[in-house]
Design a protein that fits this description.
Strand order of the largest sheet: 2-1-3-8-7-6
Order of helices and strands: HEHHEHEHEHHEEEEHEHEEHE
CATH class of the largest domain: Alpha Beta
CATH superfamily of the largest domain: MoaB/Mog-like domain
Structural class: alpha/beta
Number of helices: 10
Number of domains: 2
Low-confidence stretches: 12-27
Number of strands: 12
CATH topology of the largest domain: Molybdenum Cofactor Biosythetic Enzyme, Chain A
Helix content: 40-55%
Oligomer: single chain
């Protein structure tokens, strides 16, 4: 009987937390931001052999620029799966789709084939991409990394891009990144090797994104709260955020030590001016501090 009661209570608070999170997010997203979806390609991610750090890195970069990542998806090395994930993102009307992985010379590197299918374009030999790949293998041959600089079919494959695409220079590896536009949506394809992805994004793609991104500023602040459990604090947080647009507050239970609960509270604000976002965060922080004290808790330094 006791176990059933506990399960019911936990179920109630879980449902409450989901409803509150959806409400807070809808309020947070009232300001128009540039929307991104991230698609990672690779069975090695899906079977757990490799941790997907690329999406985390990209999301941090995009968020710091004022964009908002609305979805992250991982699919296998399958043309149909890649294509359907691109089509779904296009239907949702996002501003940017960024893929990572599947641009290399092997038979299972299928990202560009999937993209081409999704946007109904043929893969064609791109002259600039061809020169990039040719120069890369010339240098590798000079350094003794490869025996011959010849552009074999597998190497030439990396220069076959969807018609109308722009290659992005890869200073670290062999496969160029790719950029194209379909309707109002930009599609950028980056290699899966982290060092290559970082290089292409920062040196080639980021300047382009900055030109397209809506000017929205985000300010974050973290409060460490002691002596109040999350389920007691949640209704108070809901009351506070009802009064504000462009505010998101997320609690993260940390631990219970010696009978004392600890919560990490993240406050995020967005606005079209940085000072407005900062003012929102400061106002919310002040209100939360007052509530915590009233409830007998403490905000740790």
């Amino acid at each position: 009987m006791l176990l059933k009661c506990v399960k019911k209570i936990l179920g109630f608070f879980t449902r409450f937390a989901i409803i509150l999170l959806r409400y807070m997010w809808s309020r947070f997203s009232d300001l128009k931001q540039t929307l991104f979806e991230l698609i990672t390609v690779g069975y090695e991610i899906l079977d757990g052999r490799i941790l997907n750090t690329n999406s985390k890195w990209l999301a941090e970069k995009i968020t710091s620029m004022g964009g908002r990542v609305t979805r992250m998806v991982t699919v296998g090395d399958s043309i149909s799966d890649i294509s359907s994930s691109i089509k779904d993102a296009l239907k949702r009307g996002v501003d940017w789709i960024i893929t990572s992985g599947g641009l290399g010379p092997t038979y299972d590197d299928m990202t560009l084939q999937g993209v081409a299918k999704a946007v109904n374009r043929r893969l064609v030999l791109n002259r600039k991409a061809y020169e990039m790949v040719r120069e890369r293998y010339r240098k590798l041959a000079e350094e003794g990394v490869v025996k011959s600089p010849e552009l074999t079919p597998s190497r030439l494959k990396m220069a076959m891009l969807p018609r109308g695409s722009k290659p992005l220079h890869n200073k670290v590896g062999s496969a160029p990144g790719v950029l194209l536009k379909h309707g109002r949506t930009y599609i950028a394809c980056l290699p899966g090797v982290p060092a290559e992805l970082y290089s292409i994004f920062e040196e080639e793609l980021e300047p382009i994104i900055i030109k397209t991104i809506k000017k929205v500023y985000r300010v974050d602040r973290v409060l460490n709260i002691k002596g109040i459990v999350e389920s007691s604090l949640a209704p108070k947080i809901e009351e506070i955020i009802k009064k504000y647009l462009g505010i998101y507050v997320k609690s993260h239970p940390k631990s219970v030590e010696a009978g004392v609960s600890r919560i990490e509270l993240q406050i995020s604000a967005i606005a079209n001016k940085e000072e407005r976002a900062l003012k929102k965060v400061e106002e919310i922080e002040k209100l939360i501090r007052e509530v915590v004290v009233e409830m007998g808790g403490e905000v740790e330094l």
